[in-house]
Amino acid sequence: MLAGAILLFGGTAIAAPAEEGSVAVAVSMATTFPTTARSACTHVAAAAAYPVAPKPEAAPPLQGRVTDTTGVLSAACASELTDRLAALEQRLGVQVAILLVGSTGQSTIEQFATTVFDQWKLGKAEVNNGLLLVAALNDHTVRIEVGYGLEGTIPDIVAGRIIRERIVPAFRENRIEAGISDALDALTHEMMPADVAAPEPPTPATALDGRDEAYETAAATATDAANPPPRDARAGGEKYQSNGLPERKRPNTGGVRFWFLLGVANVVLGVVAQWRKLRRRVALLAAWLVAAVVPVVMLPVGAIFNGNLEAMLGAAAFVPAAAGVGPCLLGINLFRSARVRKITAIVGGTLFMIVAIGREMDYSVGEVLSGIFGVLCVLAVIWAKLTGSGSSSSSSSSGSRSPSSSDSFRGGGGSSGGGGASGRW
């Protein structure tokens, strides 16, 4: 009896620290992402036909991180999924969107997913780290579309396993909310860095029917045999973060600096030509020749334009005018007009400050200038609309209004890499 008591209380004392440590780990992970211990995604959908859009092949408007055109998700579940996706983007910078439709029409689920992904532009343009989970409920098809930058983290075989183990069993029982929630848990686990990743949630207890057991066994064997290579050992020499996303390289501004100095040189040429009272035709011709010859002599044109003949021919016609004639005309008018000097100083100072702020935010000069150009184009369009006919502008503005969404989520300019997996239930 004494030995039994020692074993009983000794085992309890030994087991207590481990249990206490596991609670600490769980609490630590709970502060990283919203947990699903008391998930709101438990509603069981009624087995009925879901609404289909008039043009089911077209991508629906992006309503937020969760776009449900079928009405199958409860408001509480949609809100919970939105919060979890927002936390995932804030933590890892990954843009994940969920789309539920009735049918994809004549398009396959793969074609439809690619169309939606590219139109919504999920993920950042420089790394393409977007992911789309789309399900057509009437068609009984589902797909996980993965951006190119996430294909190392979510390879096709992992996406297929998540569909088979998380989505298909739940969808067969009309537990649409639970299937999506479980799939999001698994995707989050795969994208989390290895040093902070929580244990993957257990596979739902619902077993697949007998016709799929052999297939599941073979798929599990293939999954174990085809583990993706370590993130730091991938080919190409590109550095990756611990979560599998490629590190963003600091942009090289040497090319931008060259073209800027070339433009400044032609501005100086225009000032000198006006000061020496040279003919304007002579000055502009000299600037054109400088802008046409110097890039060929100083830089490997084939490397700049990647050997693309059309790009080089277009540059031969555009660069001399943009980097030669334009700056030369500016230099001539800088010498002649105080108003031009004042406007140039204001615009130049503003551009310098914007570029400096952009560089501090790790954007390249080209990206900053492209953004400024885009904003100017938008302002020009708005100005043209405002100065146009009042009746047409008012009618067009009233016709273009759309219901607002509580989620201001927008794509970051990414595109689909064609990776992912599909399934049926």
TrEMBL record:
The chain crosses the membrane at residues 256-275, 282-305, 311-335, 342-359, 365-384. It holds the Pfam family TPM_phosphatase. Residues 410-425 have a biased composition (Gly residues). Residues 1-15 form the signal peptide. Residues 217-226, 389-409 have a biased composition (Low complexity). Keywords: Membrane, Signal, Transmembrane, Transmembrane helix. The keyword Membrane applies. Residues 66-188 form the TPM domain. InterPro entries: TPM_dom (IPR007621). Residues 217-249, 389-425 are annotated as: Disordered. It comes from the Bacteria. This is TPM domain-containing protein. It comes from Burkholderia reimsis.
